[in-house]
Design a protein that fits this description.
It comes from Jannaschia aquimarina. By secondary structure, the protein is an alpha+beta fold. Helices cover about 25% and strands about 20% of the residues.
């Protein structure tokens, strides 16, 4: 998947208000909303409002203000949802990139998942 941004992807449509969402947090540079097929009691998608395809694209090309806003929004959501290790049992943050990473939507997004034991993400090498 190249870094060419497709402005017809589902998250671009959500950002434009063409598709509804259940907003968890919104700032100048970031939108967070409930996943429509949650994998745990807490499953929030956090996306930058800018046109970034993957995490590495975002961190390489976003402004300092966008990066800081995104990171602080993630921290606030973890605290607000009670999944931060300071207020809960912890969480998993997942982002997929490119074909091998099984990225389905070509807009950088972070899954914040928690509210139950999640088990190992990968099996131990044996």
């Amino acid at each position: 998947m190249p870094y060419t941004y497709d402005d017809q992807n589902v998250f671009a449509k959500i950002l434009r208000g063409e598709i509804p969402n259940t907003t968890v947090a919104e700032t100048e540079h970031t939108l967070a909303f409930e996943d429509i097929t949650p994998q745990a009691p807490v499953h929030v998608l956090v996306i930058p409002k800018g046109a970034y395809v993957t995490m590495d694209d975002f961190y390489a090309n976003a402004s300092d203000a966008e990066i800081t806003d995104f990171a602080r929004t993630v921290a606030r959501i973890c605290a607000d949802k009670g999944i931060s290790p300071d207020t809960g049992d912890g969480f998993r943050a997942i982002t997929n990139a490119g074909e091998a990473g099984v990225q389905e939507v070509p807009h950088f997004h972070l899954h914040l998942i928690g509210g139950r034991p999640l088990g190992r993400m990968l099996q131990k090498a044996g």
